[in-house]
Structure formats: structure tokens, C-alpha cells
TrEMBL record, chain A:
Region (Disordered): 1-48, 93-112, 171-190
Gene Ontology biological process: chromatin organization
Domain Codanin-1 C-terminal intervals: 619-730
Matches recorded under InterPro entries: Codanin-1, Codanin-1_C
Gene source species: Ficedula albicollis (Collared flycatcher)
Pfam families: Codanin-1_C (PF15296)
Stated name of the protein: Codanin-1 C-terminal domain-containing protein
Automatic annotation (TrEMBL), chain B:
GO biological process, one term: erythrocyte differentiation
Protein species of origin: Ficedula albicollis (Collared flycatcher)
A Pfam family of this chain: TPD
Keywords: Cytoplasm, Nucleus
Gene that this sequence comes from: CDIN1
KW Ribosomal protein (keyword) present: no
Cellular localization per UniProt: Cytoplasm; Nucleus
Protein known as: CDAN1-interacting nuclease 1
CC per GO annotation: cytoplasm; nucleus
Length: 1066, 283
């Protein structure tokens, strides 16, 4: 690692990518004593006195690698250290000294200062100039064995170092003077330094190690292989390795993209879990509704602004989040919100770089059209170069929360809510346990569908693994948050804290889960997320008894997981586990001595694994894409090479490599004595010799049909019962002032008996639907016997599921639904009056209606205009055209007949307005203009049956009677206000009023007696005495007329006569 | 009809202090003959409401109320048939319906010696026949009928217009064979926030996938759109994903800036609809 900084110091400043020394990437801790990594700035003496690590290492090494002399290891370490010291002293920039890994530095530590001002050309490494080949070869072998046997804490760190050697640049002065291998050979004896003094030796060593580690390298991604295959130093130092690399590159399909499209979506609202019935109170429901919206509002605000420099999460969002927490506490909604939070977290962050960079990450349709899908992939790669960070950060970055994860982390920090954290932890644990239990369907080689299935399963595994890692990281974050310190606690470990913390139980028993996963051979799923969890430990936690055991066990797994292509576990599966564990051992808060101390208390590694159907380790589930997604730092290797060889290009082809899965055999349960058990066993046996898809289909059908059955019963039987209950309640609630609860109970009890029908209907449903579904889903060629067995099993399972649920819940369901309906019923305004709506609902458009009548809103607007002009104030000469008004009423009739656009409020308003209009018409408040005829207008002319107003009134009668679907409030005509319009009325207006009254009775809009009583009560009001006289006279005439005229048929003709009578009398 | 921010500002500028009467509306139409009447009316109504919101407090101080009431009493004493309340409202730049409410409330307070309930007042505004004083009843009615931005009649017209456009939208969806769940069905299922229509199968409009459609029978100006985003559209997005808003009376073009994020604005039913598996409109 130290070599990295030396190397960095010598790089050219003109380079586009600034390489970063590895050691400085873990600035929050003191560095690990790694196999090859001695801090540059430390003197060897200081290092030796630093601790017991080398001894510890030696002990380990002696136990496991007896074939290699331990002395040579230490010798090599020393040599490397010296080499680094030398390189450091050669570096002209004083900034190189500042790489004191013992001092915590900020992550933003800038490395540009360390670049030397001088720029050297890359020295041409020459195989002929290599000195002490023999020793180098020996060292290479030794070193490679350590890597191969997992004796180094992080194999990729070592590979990174090797690549640094491969790409190192010597100073030209050193090279030129050192041209004779013989001289170097002699010098070696003087000091061990010379082994790695020249670039030629470094490259030689590196190429040898790469040769030994070819298998690992050949499993890395294609871009990396390409760079190695094109590396001139390799080709000149080892043509055979070059050839192998070329072949590996050409046959590799392991293209890796760190930019997976990730379109951000919200968590959808699911009525089954999110509607009112899931909340204890209306308030809790309403509050949560608001919290959901606030949460997304915060998220959007963060999206928009977090990249701006002046924007500060806590300052802008902190108080909003805490207000939200307070509301959640008040209504006990934390668990619900925690679930939403967790779902949104998964939705946004399961991508490789912490979720999409923007909300609209999916390719724009326009762009797609413009470029075509072929060019789109190029565009994507280009985009990747922009979005994915290119600077070299070393293969062991500290844990971080990239991309959208940052929002969620900051949210937790700003919320600072104990309740929220607790519920979030619960929610995370629950989801982790669920995902950790993932089972894959075994693969069947015999049929051709494996490829597709295998891909699906791989996808499922990938999704589960990435989600698990994400959730575990957040779980670890919250769990260790209270103990987090910026740096390792100074001095001795606080014993008291240790004693106390040793007493507490972990929220999630990861030790148990880890053991189980090893036993069940599912470590490929479990270890990667446990590593994420542990990467966030505080500085004390690893010393707790519990976590000591966990780390001890992980260390054993690491040691034993020797990389080779064997039957037990695929190479890439192992590589992933090694990569994540290696990374964990480098995490700042994980103590460095961990790797090198053997703990006697460590439990024996459980080798007695159980081969179960759930085993995952055998299945080649990991591909390079997943490996690099989980360990993005692996691409540091490639970046290092790329920065050495700038601007290499070249096209390549490739074929799709198929990974053939191996199936684990499932064990049929042992037969037992009871008949029932026998049946179950028979069923299992039946599935045993069938393709696994059969079982999956049957189970799937059973699950769905069972669920649908319950839904169907709810929608039919229960709905019917509720409807009947509604009718019963409607009757009874009107009877007297009854106790609602008691009434409800009574009605429900009545219905429970019929609820028993549900089981019978449920059984019928499953029996009908189950076989249909099975038949559709199974292959056509399935034999009749197999089919019928599958059908009956599916029906049996579905019935079990549905009827089990129904028998337990039907009564409660009925009660809940009836209660909800009852509450709605009570809330309806005007209840328990038989609603106007009931009458209204029966109406329909006339047959053949084209729905092209004017809109109701338009009609209200126009009538409003007429009313406006009528009540004034009017402008000079402002009139209402008679023909236009007549036409308006005609259109109103059409509007009312077409029911399509009508709504109750509009219709009621129209009814009210037309009554108002009638009152204004009879009192001559509407300034009607009769067009040309208006000049001839005279009171005499307008009187009598040809009065234009009566024509309009006749239209209104007909509209009220025939066209309105709602009841028309004609009694408003007798309101004090409207009758008041008549106070200064002349004879003509009284005639029209009488005409109106007759019209009302003739069209059965009001009964005669009603009108009489209205008129009587009007007479009681404090009017001017003349007006009361007029009213009384009118009342008298109306009564007499009506009695006389009753047998007659034509109301209008009659009215003319009666008006004349009134006139003569007055 | 989409308006640019500049076009909109020109109209809003003109509307500065226009009174909400039918005469003003006529003038507005003459001034901007190229704009549709409903768009103009909608903008007018919104602008006027903004102005009223700004000055609302001013008209509700105890002093103001007392002054208005005394002026009303003096006015009707001189001539009960004159448009006393309406003129007063216009004079002090306040909505006639709201002025009627202030005076009515004050009147009832004096008569009943208690503060009348809001529902009673609203009910009397809707049906002035219930007002015990005949003169006041006429004055109030004159105010509510003449007001073209506030009052029960206007409220009803707005409600009707909204309903009609929902029905229109439903027809168009049926015609295009797009299956949907309407608001009332969603409510019955217990959704807490519901757009007018949720598409059972999402479609792409102009290349953007939408899950829901909301119909707005108004003009989309800045303040109303912000309020809708806050109260409705983002809430729908939070629950159902991206969606489409149709402002039937147009909107300010610049507001259609959340397309990428999932809120699409249109002023009519879209023609470029791509459904799953087959294209309905040829691109």
C-alpha cells in the first residue's frame, strides 16, 4: 500500500486521472498491518515497535503454510519497506511525507499536492535488464501462495499492489546507471534493496505474480482483461501470459456496467394495507396521509437541491422532519411510516451507485428514436463515463452512503427519533429475515426451459442480495449509531462500557444467521449482507464477545475459502465472498489485529453442512456484474491500468457464455404411520418425479385461487348480506330512537348464519377455478393422470387456504362491512328521509339522445344573466329579448332532458333560478323587448291571453313538470321576498300572478290547498294595508275560480275569464 | 389554450382592478378577442380571487364592518330600491357576495343578539327568501346574482363545469377504450387521495408514461397550479406514479416543467397516446 503513494508521487501532473494512494483512503483509522502494506512514512523501527502484528502473522503463517519459510516472508516485508522508504525519499514533493496514516485525515484530503512538479516519461521496462531473477521468482512464488491460501487480509489489495508494481515508473537516472544486470546481481549482496529498485525488477515480479494468479484475473471483468492483454510490459516480459490473457479476454463476456437504469418511483398505495380500516382512528389515517406527502416533498426538495453547495440538509429539512416525527408520535404511526421509509429506500437505492442519479433515468423516447437502440448503448457507456466516478480511490474505500442513500441516512440523523429508529430497525430486520430466506427453485436439466428459469432465478437472487445489503447497511448504521465516534477511543478500551455492552443482546442474531447459512450452504446470500452490517460497527463493538465470535467465524470462512474451480462452490461465488470479507477487514473501525490473532475461544468451524434444497452456494449465482455491483472498488484495478495506458481502443466480439447450473436433490420427507401423513407423503412423492415447474404451478394456483376465492366471497355473498343489512337497518333506524350499537349487533347476528354459506360457496369456487388455472398453466402434453392429480392437489390446497380463512373471519368481516355501511348511512345528510337522489337516479336520457344539449353550467350562466338584468342595476336601454328568452327556455328543456352532464347541485340551482325567474316575470321586473312589435306595445295589447309573459310562464310550467328530475321549489314564489316584488303591482301583474297560480295547480306542481294556505300565511305578514287587501281579493278569486272551474279541461282559457272577473271587481 | 407567461401577464395586468360585473366581462372580451371566453373568465376569476384574498382582512375589521353596516342602513333608508349594497361593494373594491355576507352577519347579530352560525348565513345567501328583512333580502339577492366571481350561483356554476368536464373526459376514455377506475370507486376502496381517473393499464402520452388523469375545468396559473401540485398532483404521484393533468381552459406554458418527473400538463385530451402492445395514434 505504501508503494501506492510512492508511485502516486511520481506520476505526471498532466495526467487526467489522479491516482490515489490506498492508505489515505482509510483516513479515519490507523492503517491495517497488511501483508504488503507498511505505511510509507514510518520507519521500519517504528513499525516493529508498533505492536505484535508481525508475530501474530508469523504464528498464523506457521500453522498454515509450513512449506514456506517464514523468514523469507519477513525478509520480503522488510525489503518492500525499504523500497518504499527509498522511493519516498526520492520523491521531490514534501507532500509525500504528509501521508502519515497514523493521523486521521479528512476524506476530502487532496492528493493533487503530492504530485511532483517534475514529469518523467514512463521508463521502458526491459526484460533483459532484470536482476536477481532467481530471488524474484522465489518471492513471487511465495507471495502468490499467500494470496492463493488466503493468508493476506485482502487479496485484491495485493493485486492492486502488484498492478502498481507493473505500472510503476522508475526515474530515468536510476535506470540508466543500473543497466548491467551483473552489477545489480553483485549489489544485491550488499543490500536487499536492489530487488525492487529497478522498474525492470518490479515489472518482472509483477508479471510472475500475475501469471500465478491468472485464474483470479481471468474471472475479472472484460475491460480489465483487455487492458492486461494490451499491456506492453506483460507482452514483453511474458509472451505466454500475454497469450493467455488475450484468449481470456476474447472469450470473456463479463461486461460490467455500473450504471444500471433505475427509474425512481413512489411506493404505491395499496388499499388492502393502506386504507382507513388499517388505522385505529380517523386522525391516525389523516395524519399518515399528510406524512406520506410531506415525506415525498422532502425527497423532491433533496433531489433538486442537494448538489448545490449552499444547500444543507439539516438546516433546510431538519425541522420539517422533526415536526413530522412529532406528528407520528402523537398518532402512534411510526411503524407504518418506517415501513414506507424502508420500501422507498429499497425502491430508490438498490442500484449499484446508490440509485439513479436523476428521477428520469430511463431513456427518453425521443432520444431512443433519434439514436436507435444500438447507439443508445453507446450513449449509455458514454453517460457512464460521466456519471461513475473515475478517480482512483484505492480498493478499500470506507463504507459510504452514495447517491440517494445519503438522503435516507441524513433523514435518520436529522429525525433523531428513538421511536422512529426502533420501528425502522424492526422493519429492516423483518425484511432482512424475509429476504434471507430466499429459496430458489431447483434446476432441472432435462427440459429445455432451464436457461430461462436460470436467468429468472439469478435475477431474483441478485435483487434479494442487493436489497439485503442495502437494508443491512442501514440496520448496522442505526444499531451502532449511538456508539459511533469520529476516531478510535484514545487509551485503553473502556472496560465498563465493554462489560455493560456484553450484557445486551443484538437486535438481529447475525451470529446465528451466519452459522445457519454456513450449515445450509447459503453463505453466498448471507455473508455479503452481514459484511455490510458489520462495516458500520463502532470502534468498540468488535471487542464485544458476541462480535468477536462473528468476526472469528468470518475469518475462518475466509481462510477456508480457497479459490479454485471445484464442485462445491462456483469460483465467482467464492470470489464475491472473499472480496467483501477482504474489504470488511480493511474497514477503519474493524481492528487490524483481528486478522492476525487466533482466538482460542473461537468455535470450531462447522463443517457438517446439510445438503438441503435451499442450498445456494453450489448454484453459480454470481456473475461479474453482480460482483462489481457489490464491490465497485474492484474496478480500481482497472482504473489503475487504464491510467497507465491511456487511450487504448479496439473492437471486440464475444459469445454468450452459458452457465450450467447444478441442481441439488430434494429430500422427500420420511413416511410416517398415520394415513394423513401418508397422503402428504404421496403428494410429495408425486411432485418428486415431476419437473419442479409443476409443483411451482400447483402451489401458485392454490395460493392465487384461494386468495381470489376470499375476494369473490367478499364481493358477492358478503356484499349481498351487507345490502340486506342496509335495508333492515334503514327500516329499523326510522322506527324510533334506537340504540345504534344494539341494532347493529342484532342485524349482524341475523346474518351470521347465512355467512356459513361462505364455506360452501368457497369450496365451489375453488373446485371450479383451480382446475381451469392448472390446465392453462401446465404444458399441453401433460398426461391426464398427472393433470388430474395436480388439479385436485391445487383445489385441495386452495380450499384449505380459503375456507380456513373464511371460517375464522367471516363473522368479523360481515360485522365490519355492515358497520362501515351503517356509519356511511348515518352520515348521509337528510337521512333517514327518502332521498331526492333516489327519484333522480331513475331518470335517463330520452331514447336516441345525442347528448348535444347545452351544458348545465352554460344554462345557469345564461339564466343568471337574465336575473342580473332583472334585479338590476341596468344600463340605459338594457333589455332582454323576448325571442331569445323563449329560446333560452327551449334550450333549458333540452339540457334538462339529457342527463349525461347533469349533476344534482346544478339541477337544483336551475330549479331555484327558474322559480326566481317566474316571480320576476309576473311582477314585470324583466325588461322584455319584443323586437319590432315593441313600438306598438301598449298595456291593452299586452293584457289578455296573448300576453308574451304568459307564454314564457307556460314554457316554465312544462319544464318544471316534464323536464326536471328534481323537485322544483315552486313554493318560493310565495316567499316574502318574491311576493314583495308585487307590492307596487298593477292589475296586469295580478292577472299574471293568478295565471301562475292556476298553472301550478293544473300542472300538479302544487295542490290548491297548499296554495291557499300559502296565501293565508302571506296575509298575516306586515304589508301595507292596500297590499293586504289585494292579496285577500286574489285569494278569494283563486278559491272561487278553482272550485267553479274544476270540471273544465283547458286551464288557460279559463284563466282569461277569471282574470276579467277580478278586473271588474277591482 | 396554452399561454406564454408574457401573454398571461398582459391579461393579468389589465385585470388589475376590474370589478366582477357583467359589464367588466364584456370589456375583457373586447380587449382580448383572440382568447377564448372561458379562458378569460377563468383567469379573471382567479385574479379577482387573489386580489380579494389580499384585501380580505382589511374588510373584516370591526371598524370596517360597522362602517359598511351604517352605510347600508342609511342607503336603504333613503331609497330601498337602489342597489345600495352592490354599489358599496364596488366602491370599496370588494366582492358583492362577500359584502352581502358581512352586512347580513352584522344584521343578524343585532337582531338575534348573538353571533349567527356560518351555516345559517350560507343558507340565507343561497336562498335570500329566508332573510327576515325583505329589503335586505332583495339587496343580498342583487349582490349574489350580480357577482361573477363569488357567491352560491358562481360556486354552483364552477361545480357544474367541473362535473361536465369529468363526464367529457370519461367519454373520451371510453371512446379510446382505455379502462379506468373513477374517483368514486377509488373512494369506496378506501384510497386516501384520489385523482379523477386511474388508468388500469398505464399508457404513454407524448412519450411519458401516465397512471392517472386529473381534469381541471379552470385555467392553470402559477398560484393555482402550485396549490394543486402541493395538495393533489404530488400526492397522486406519491401513491400512483406519474400522471396527466388536463387544464381544459389552458395553462401557462412554463408551468409544464415536471414532465420528466411525472406530471404532464395538457389543455385538451391528448392525441398521441401509446398503449401497451399497440399504438393508437400513428407517430
Amino acid at each position: 500500500m505504501g508503494a501506492a503513494s510512492g508511485w502516486a508521487n511520481r506520476s505526471k501532473p498532466s495526467r487526467r486521472i489522479n491516482p490515489t494512494p490506498v492508505s489515505a483512503e482509510r483516513p479515519l483509522s490507523k492503517p491495517k498491518t497488511c501483508f504488503t502494506s507498511t505505511p510509507v512514512s514510518r520507519s521500519p523501527a517504528a513499525h516493529w515497535s508498533a505492536g505484535s502484528s508481525p508475530e501474530a502473522f508469523a504464528a498464523v503463517q506457521e500453522g498454515n503454510l509450513s512449506s514456506v519459510m517464514s523468514n523469507s516472508l519477513q525478509e520480503e516485508r522488510e525489503m518492500l519497506k525499504k523500497e518504499r522508504c527509498k522511493l519516498l525519499h526520492q520523491a521531490s514533493s514534501p507532500a509525500g511525507i504528509s501521508f502519515d496514516p497514523g493521523t486521521p485525515t479528512k476524506p476530502s484530503y487532496t492528493r493533487s499536492a503530492s504530485l511532483p512538479a517534475e514529469s518523467h516519461l514512463v521508463t521502458c521496462a526491459n526484460p533483459a535488464k532484470v536482476s536477481c531473477k532467481k530471488q524474484l521468482e522465489c518471492l513471487a512464488q511465495l507471495y502468490s501462495s499467500c494470496i492463493a491460501e488466503n493468508l493476506v487480509p485482502n487479496i485484491f489489495l495485493e493485486l492492486f499492489f502488484v498492478l502498481q508494481l507493473l505500472t510503476s515508473k522508475g526515474t530515468s537516472t536510476a535506470e540508466d546507471g543500473d543497466s548491467d544486470p551483473e552489477i545489480s546481481e553483485r549489489n544485491r549482496d550488499v543490500s536487499g534493496r536492489q530487488h525492487f529498485e529497478s522498474v525492470h525488477n518490479c515489472v518482472y515480479f509483477a508479471v510472475r505474480v500475475l501469471d500465478y494468479q491468472f485464474e483470479i484475473i481471468s474471472h475479472l471483468e472484460k475491460g480489465m482483461l483487455k487492458l492486461l492483454a494490451e499491456n506492453e510490459r506483460i507482452s514483453s516480459f511474458s509472451p505466454t501470459l500475454h497469450k493467455r490473457l488475450r484468449q481470456a479476454y476474447e472469450s470473456s463476456t463479463a461486461k460490467v456496467s455500473l450504471l444500471l437504469p433505475c427509474s425512481v418511483q413512489s411506493v404505491s398505495f395499496q388499499p388492502e394495507t393502506d386504507n382507513r380500516s388499517n388505522f385505529p382512528s380517523d386522525r391516525a389515517f389523516q395524519v399518515f396521509k399528510k406524512q406520506r406527502d410531506i415525506f415525498y416533498e422532502l425527497l423532491r426538495e433533496w433531489e433538486d437541491n442537494h448538489e448545490k453547495t449552499v444547500w444543507d440538509f439539516e438546516r433546510v429539512l431538519g425541522s420539517k422532519i422533526r415536526a413530522m416525527m412529532a406528528h407520528l408520535s402523537a398518532t402512534c404511526n411510526h411503524s407504518r411510516f418506517a415501513r414506507l421509509f424502508q420500501k422507498q429506500l429499497i425502491q430508490m437505492c438498490k442500484g449499484p451507485i446508490g440509485g439513479g442519479a436523476s428521477w428520469g433515468d430511463t431513456p427518453d423516447q425521443d432520444v431512443l428514436n433519434m439514436l436507435g437502440s444500438d447507439n443508445l448503448s453507446r450513449l449509455k457507456r458514454l453517460q457512464e463515463r460521466f456519471v461513475v466516478p473515475q478517480s482512483i480511490r484505492g480498493p478499500c474505500p470506507p463504507p459510504s452512503f452514495p447517491g440517494c442513500q445519503q438522503f435516507f441516512r441524513d433523514f435518520i440523523l436529522s429525525a433523531g427519533s428513538y421511536q422512529f429508529n426502533q420501528h425502522l430497525v424492526d422493519s429492516l430486520c423483518l425484511k432482512i429475515l424475509e429476504l434471507n430466506g430466499l429459496t430458489l427453485v431447483e434446476h432441472d436439466h432435462s427440459d429445455g426451459e432451464t436457461d430461462m428459469e436460470e436467468q429468472d432465478e439469478k435475477k431474483r437472487f441478485t435483487v434479494a442480495l442487493l436489497s439485503l445489503r442495502l437494508l443491512a447497511k442501514f440496520l448496522g448504521f442505526i444499531v451502532f449509531l449511538p456508539y459511533r465516534t469520529a476516531e478510535q477511543p484514545a487509551g485503553d478500551m473502556p472496560d465498563s462500557a465493554l462489560v455493560l455492552r456484553n450484557q445486551t443482546l443484538p437486535v438481529l442474531d447475525i451470529l446465528k444467521l451466519l452459522r445457519q447459512s454456513i450449515r445450509d450452504q447459503r453463505s453466498i446470500l448471507t455473508i455479503p449482507w452481514i459484511v455490510e452490517y458489520l462495516s458500520l460497527v463502532d470502534h468498540v463493538a468488535p471487542f464485544l464477545d458476541y462480535y468477536r465470535k462473528v468476526f472469528g467465524l468470518l475469518l475462518q470462512v475466509y481462510r477456508l475459502m480457497v479459490l479454485s474451480e471445484d464442485k462445491e462452490m462456483s469460483f465467482l461465488n467464492k470470489l464475491l465472498i472473499l472480496a467483501v470479507l477482504g474489504w470488511l477487514f480493511q474497514v477503519p473501525s474493524v481492528p487490524e489485529e483481528l486478522f492476525f490473532t487466533t482466538d482460542d475461544r473461537q468455535e470450531r468451524f462447522v463443517m457438517d453442512t446439510v445438503t438441503s434444497a435451499q442450498a445456494l452456494d453450489f448454484v453459480p449465482l454470481v456473475d461479474q456484474q453482480l460482483l462489481y455491483t457489490c464491490c465497485p472498488y474492484l474496478s480500481e484495478l482497472r482504473k489503475l491500468l487504464a491510467s497507465f495506458v491511456a487511450g487504448s481502443g479496439g473492437k471486440n466480439g464475444g459469445f454468450i457464455r452459458k452457465i450450467t447450473p447444478t441442481a441439488a436433490e430434494s429430500l422427500a420427507p420420511k413416511a410416517s404411520v398415520t394415513q394423513q401423513k401418508l397422503q402428504v407423503d404421496l403428494e410429495q412423492a408425486f411432485f418428486h418425479n415431476q419437473p419442479p415447474s409443476l409443483r411451482r404451478t400447483v402451489e401458485f394456483v392454490a395460493e392465487r385461487v384461494g386468495s381470489n376465492c376470499v375476494k369473490h366471497i367478499k364481493a358477492t355473498l358478503v356484499a349481498d348480506l351487507v345490502q340486506r343489512a342496509e335495508a333492515m337497518l334503514q327500516d329499523k333506524v326510522k322506527e324510533e330512537d334506537v340504540n345504534h350499537d344494539k341494532l347493529l349487533e342484532e342485524v349482524c347476528t341475523h346474518l351470521y348464519e347465512e355467512g356459513a354459506q361462505a364455506l360452501i360457496k368457497g369450496r365451489e369456487f375453488c373446485k371450479k377455478k383451480g382446475p381451469e388455472a392448472v390446465r392453462v398453466l401446465l404444458p399441453e402434453e401433460t398426461s391426464a393422470a398427472v393433470l388430474s392429480s395436480a388439479e385436485s392437489i391445487a383445489v385441495e390446497l386452495a380450499t384449505e387456504k380459503a375456507c380456513g380463512w373464511l371460517s375464522a373471519n367471516i363473522a368479523a368481516l360481515i360485522k365490519r362491512e355492515v358497520k362501515a355501511t351503517f356509519n356511511r348511512m348515518l352520515k348521509v345528510p337528510g337521512f333517514p328521509l327518502p332521498g331526492v337522489d333516489a327519484v333522480e337516479l331513475r331518470r335517463d336520457c330520452p331514447p336516441g339522445c345525442q347528448h348535444c344539449a347545452p351544458f348545465p353550467s352554460q344554462m345557469i350562466n345564461e339564466i343568471k344573466y337574465v336575473l342580473c338584468v332583472a334585479v338590476g342595476p341596468r344600463e340605459e336601454g338594457e333589455v332582454v329579448d323576448y325571442v331569445w328568452l323563449e329560446c333560452l327556455l327551449g334550450r333549458l328543456s333540452q339540457t334538462l332532458r339529457c342527463r349525461k352532464f347533469m349533476c344534482p347541485t346544478a339541477e337544483q340551482q336551475l330549479a331555484k333560478c327558474t322559480v326566481e325567474l317566474a316571480s320576476l316575470l309576473v311582477s314585470d321586473r324583466v325588461p322584455l323587448s319584443l323586437g319590432i312589435k315593441s313600438s306598438e306595445k301598449s298595456p291593452e295589447r299586452l293584457r289578455g291571453k296573448n300576453d308574451p309573459t304568459s307564454g314564457l310562464l307556460k314554457l316554465l310550467f312544462s319544464i318544471w313538470k316534464e323536464d326536471f328530475g328534481t323537485s322544483v321549489p315552486v313554493q318560493l314564489i310565495f316567499s316574502k321576498k318574491n311576493v314583495g316584488y308585487l307590492t307596487e303591482a298593477k292589475q296586469r301583474e295580478w292577472d299574471l300572478f293568478l295565471f301562475l297560480l292556476h298553472g301550478l295547480t293544473e300542472h300538479e306542481l302544487m295542490r290548491t290547498s297548499e296554495i291557499q294556505s300559502c296565501l293565508h300565511s302571506l296575509e298575516e305578514l306586515p304589508w301595507p294595508s292596500d297590499f293586504v287587501k289585494d292579496l285577500k281579493r286574489l285569494s278569494r278569486v283563486f278559491v272561487s275560480e278553482h272550485q267553479i272551474e274544476k270540471p273544465r279541461t283547458n286551464p288557460c282559457e279559463l284563466t282569461r275569464q277569471s282574470l276579467a272577473t277580478v278586473t271588474t271587481q277591482s | 389554450m396554452k399561454l406564454s407567461k408574457a401573454q398571461y401577464d398582459e391579461i393579468a395586468q389589465f385585470l388589475g382592478h376590474v370589478q366582477p360585473t357583467r359589464q367588466s366581462l364584456r370589456k375583457l372580451k373586447e380587449k382580448f378577442p383572440s382568447q377564448s371566453q372561458s379562458t378569460l373568465l377563468s383567469i379573471f376569476s382567479q385574479e379577482y380571487q387573489k386580489q380579494i384574498k389580499r384585501t380580505h382582512a382589511k374588510h373584516h375589521t370591526a371598524e370596517a364592518i360597522e362602517t359598511y353596516y351604517q352605510r347600508y342602513l342609511n342607503g336603504v333608508m333613503k331609497n330601498a330600491a337602489a342597489p345600495v349594497l352592490l354599489d358599496l361593494a364596488n366602491e370599496v373594491d370588494f366582492a358583492p357576495s362577500l359584502m352581502a355576507r358581512i352586512v347580513l352577519e352584522r344584521f343578524l347579530q343585532e337582531k338575534e343578539q348573538a353571533i349567527p352560525s356560518k351555516t345559517l348565513i350560507s343558507s340565507m345567501l343561497r336562498d335570500p327568501s329566508q332573510i327576515p328583512d325583505g329589503v335586505l333580502a332583495n339587496q343580498v339577492y342583487q349582490c349574489t346574482v350580480n357577482d361573477c366571481c363569488y357567491g352560491p350561483l358562481v360556486d354552483c356554476i364552477k361545480h357544474a363545469v367541473g362535473h361536465e368536464h369529468e363526464v367529457l373526459l370519461r367519454e373520451m376514455l371510453l371512446e379510446k377504450n382505455l379502462s379506468f377506475i373513477a374517483e368514486d370507486q377509488l373512494r369506496a376502496k378506501g384510497y386516501d387521495k384520489t385523482p379523477d381517473f386511474i388508468l388500469e393499464v398505464p399508457v404513454a402520452v407524448e412519450g411519458h408514461i401516465i397512471h392517472w388523469i386529473e381534469s381541471k375545468a379552470s385555467f392553470g396559473d402559477e398560484s393555482s397550479h402550485q396549490a394543486y401540485l402541493q395538495d393533489q398532483f404530488w400526492s397522486y404521484w406519491n401513491r400512483f406514479g406519474p400522471g396527466l393533468v388536463i387544464y381544459w381552459y389552458g395553462f401557462i406554458e412554463e408551468l409544464d416543467c415536471h414532465r420528466e418527473r411525472g406530471i404532464l400538463l395538457k389543455d385538451c385530451f391528448p392525441t398521441d397516446i401509446v398503449t401497451l402492445r399497440h399504438s393508437m395514434a400513428q407517430r
